[in-house]
């Protein structure tokens, strides 16, 4: 892990397209601004992990859609 020290209004550049700016520091809270292309997904880590888990659950679902459709139109 790379650890950098930044002050308010200082930035970190990631590649050519992503800039992270420290907007303010108030006590233990740091406000961060992220400038990135619209095609780059940006989430808080807990949200990212929840999305990842939901996607994993959906992918491992054992529902047989073909069977459900045929049952619906059988009658």
TrEMBL record:
Source superkingdom: Bacteria
Keyword hit for Repressor: yes
Principal location listed in the UniProt entry: cytoplasm
Keywords: Bacterial flagellum biogenesis, Cytoplasm, Repressor, RNA-binding, Translation regulation
Coiled coil residues, start to end: none
Subcellular location: Cytoplasm
Pfam families tied to this protein: CsrA
Function according to Swiss-Prot or TrEMBL: A translational regulator that binds mRNA to regulate translation initiation and/or mRNA stability. Usually binds in the 5'-UTR at or near the Shine-Dalgarno sequence preventing ribosome-binding, thus repressing translation. Its main target seems to be the major flagellin gene, while its function is anatagonized by FliW.
Assembly and oligomerization: Homodimer; the beta-strands of each monomer intercalate to form a hydrophobic core, while the alpha-helices form wings that extend away from the core.
Family as reported in the entry's similarity comment: Belongs to the CsrA/RsmA family.
Name of the protein this chain belongs to: Translational regulator CsrA
Species whose genome carries this gene: Bacillus salitolerans
Primary gene name: csrA
């Amino acid at each position: 892990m790379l650890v950098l020290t930044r002050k308010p209004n200082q930035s970190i550049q990631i590649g050519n397209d992503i800039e992270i700016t420290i907007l303010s520091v108030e006590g233990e809270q740091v406000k961060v601004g992220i400038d990135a292309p619209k095609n780059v997904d940006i989430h808080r880590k807990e949200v990212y992990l929840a999305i990842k888990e939901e996607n994993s659950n959906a992918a491992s679902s054992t529902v047989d859609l073909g069977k459900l459709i045929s049952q619906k139109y059988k009658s």
